[in-house]
Amino acid sequence: MLRRSAPVRGIHSPVALEAVVVNFFWRSPVLVAAVLWSSAFSLNASAAPAPVFVLNSLDASVSVVDPVTWVETKRLPTGKEPHHLYMTPDEKSVIVANAFGDSLTFIDPRTAEIQRTVKGIPDPYHLRFSPDMKWFVTAGNRLNHVDIYRWDGANPTLAKRIATGKTPSHLWIDTKSTTVYSSMQDSDELVAIDLATQAVKWRIKTGPMPADVFGTGDDRFLLVGMTGGENVEVYDVTGPQPRLAKKIKTGQGAHAFRAAGDKRHVYVSNRVANTIGKLDLQTLEVVDSYSVPGGPDCVDVMADGKTLLVSSRWAKRLSVLDTVTKKVVHQVKVGKSPHGVWTLDHAPR
What we know:
The chain has helices at about 15-25, 30-45, and strands spanning about 50-55, 60-65, 70-75, 80-85, 95-100, 105, 115-120, 125-130, 135-140, 145-150, 155-165, 170-175, 180-185, 190-195, 200-205, 210-215, 220-225, 230-235, 245-250, 255-260, 265-270, 275-280, 285-290, 295-300, 305-310, 315-320, 325-335, 340-345. A hairpin with a 4-residue loop joins strand 14 (about 190-195) and strand 15 (about 200-205). The chain is mainly beta. The model is unreliable at about 1-20 and about 30-45 (pLDDT under 50). It starts with 13 loop residues before the first helix and ends in a 6-residue tail after the last strand. It contains two helices and 28 strands. The strands form seven sheets. The protein has a four-stranded antiparallel sheet, with no helix packed on it. It holds the Pfam family YNCE. Keywords: Signal. This is YncE family protein.
């Protein structure tokens, strides 16, 4: 049962209460001004666009870029060799994985302030949460293992370390949170790990130097970029064993994927060809291509669905591509060997 609030002593009518409020504001103009300024500041801060984060893998830092002025506003220190980043399930932090620093740096995705550092995470080169948010998985690029951690909403706890092929590179987890897929960069393999048993289900040989892995929404196909070649290899993973279904020629150094946000297309960077390809996931064909200089590596798509953020790995630049005009409209100077790039204001995955 709801209880009515007790009336303020000495005030027995709305008119009297109004008189008290007006008298308070009249006698306290400085306080009123402070309250109004604070409210305006809070509204302005919440309306400000989220910053863009670029990981400088050879500088042990993160460049924070303003997406309006396209200027680096500050640089945050991390552990050694930050390569990739991923948002926590509660969307309150973005985690930077410091591969050689054996640590995770948690950053506020809206204010770009460092929140905390978690140490004792061996070689977290690549990272990903399972869709059911129960598991946090890392690929140990130099230590040749995949680590599966339980996630309690705040901290990872190691559940199983799984020896894999040589140089596990990128990870993907299916929509049902049953299987982890990992490419093996130096043994040219794709490996599947069952999350329930935390054991390797199968492995298959791939083309040269497989890198990023991307799964279709129906979990039927896996796309794998061949950084040592010019193709994206497409595997049908619906059966007990995978089957190579197609090779899509995208350009030399096919490397990293990012969903376009329309549930039909995905972008792939071709690091040697200096291009970004656009793939149709229904036809499994290249439908468009864009020139981006400096060894395009990782990609993010802004919320407008037409602006691509690309780390130009060899040029120490963040390249901003307008896919409508097909032109690079901004290049922002960042640190050495920029790799992962991400913003909270991104297109749907």
